């Protein structure tokens, strides 16, 4: 905390944290893409799309 007050930010930890957060977003987007793919495929095959499952 003192480092932050003194203006000395631990750049390595900041970068590691930012990388982690970006990886989490990437994983979330990948899951959303999988979901969209599944439901578009199901719709093409004539299945009813259940909004609750989406």
Can you offer a commentary on this structure?
The structure is a single chain. The model has no long low-confidence stretch (mean pLDDT 82). The chain has helices spanning 2-5, 11-44. The protein is mainly α and 54 residues long. It has 2 helices and no strands.
Secondary-structure blueprint:
Layout: H1 2-5, H2 11-44
Terminal Cα span: 43 Å
Low-confidence stretches: none
Shape: rod-shaped
Per DSSP E runs of 2 or more residues, the count of β-strands stands at: 0
In DSSP terms, counting alpha (H) and pi (I) runs of 4 or more, how many helices?
A: 2
What is the ordering of alpha helices and beta strands? HH
| Percent strand | under 5%
- Rounded to an integer in angstroms, the radius of gyration calculated over CA atoms is 20 Å
* Biggest beta sheet attributes: none
Q: What's the average pLDDT?
A: 82
Helix content: over 70%
Structural class: mainly alpha
Brief synopsis:
With 54 residues, this protein is mostly helical.
Which structural traits does this protein have?
single chain, 54 residues, mainly alpha, 70% helix, rod-shaped
């Amino acid at each position: 905390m003192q480092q932050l007050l003194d203006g000395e930010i631990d750049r390595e930890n900041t970068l590691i944290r930012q990388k982690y957060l970006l990886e989490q977003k990437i994983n979330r987007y990948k899951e959303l893409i999988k979901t969209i793919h599944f439901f578009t495929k199901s719709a093409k095959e004539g299945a009813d799309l259940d909004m609750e499952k989406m």
